[in-house]
Amino acid sequence: MERSLIEAIAAELELTLRPSRRLVRGIGDDAAVVRSGGALCVTSVDAMVEGVHFRLDEDVERPIDVGWRALAGALSDLAAMGARAGEAYIALGVSPQGGETAALELMRGALELAAQAETTIAGGDVVASPVLSACVTVVGWAESESELLARDGARVGELVGVTGTLGGRPSRPLPRLREGQALARAGASAMIDISDGLAGDARQLGESSGVCLQVELERLPLAEGVIDWEQGATAGEDYELCFTAPPGARADVERLLREVGGAQATWIGTVTPAGPPGGPGAQGVSLRDPQGAEVPLRGFEHSW
Amino acid sequence: MERSLIEAIAAELELTLRPSRRLVRGIGDDAAVVRSGGALCVTSVDAMVEGVHFRLDEDVERPIDVGWRALAGALSDLAAMGARAGEAYIALGVSPQGGETAALELMRGALELAAQAETTIAGGDVVASPVLSACVTVVGWAESESELLARDGARVGELVGVTGTLGGRPSRPLPRLREGQALARAGASAMIDISDGLAGDARQLGESSGVCLQVELERLPLAEGVIDWEQGATAGEDYELCFTAPPGARADVERLLREVGGAQATWIGTVTPAGPPGGPGAQGVSLRDPQGAEVPLRGFEHSW
Question: Which of A113, A134, A266, B237 has the most neighbouring CB atoms within 10 Å?
Answer without folding.
Answer: A134
